[in-house]
Design goal:
It contains four helices and three strands. It has one domain: Rossmann fold (3-Layer(aba) Sandwich). It is of the alpha+beta class. The N and C termini lie far apart (36 Å). Strands 1-2-3 form a three-stranded antiparallel β-sheet. 47% of the residues lie in helices and 17% in strands.
Length: 87
């Protein structure tokens, strides 16, 4: 199951890179809390979270730093959502 999540994460990472987004894939062997804290410290404007449950449904969670909103969307809608969020 972890391999499926890793593969799905890599798929989303590659999609974002190909679309011109500056992207970091945090694949360290750390807890989600440590990764979230580090992303906040580094000031990442957008955080995308992928879990086993989300991977099974081909969903992902996006959190915007500017307004702290968090949504769960289908992977096919990620590019449109992120492009709208840039404005």
């Amino acid at each position: 199951d972890d391999l499926k999540v890793e593969a799905y994460s890599q798929e989303i990472y590659n999609l974002l890179k190909k679309s011109g987004f500056s992207t970091v894939l945090d694949d360290r062997n750390e807890s989600a809390g440590v990764k979230f804290s580090d992303a906040d410290l580094l000031g990442f404007p957008i955080r995308i979270t992928i879990s086993k449950k989300l991977e099974e449904k081909k969903l992902l969670e996006i959190k915007l730093r500017k307004n702290k909103d968090s949504i769960t969307i289908n992977k096919n809608k990620i590019l449109d959502y992120l492009k709208k969020s840039e404005n």
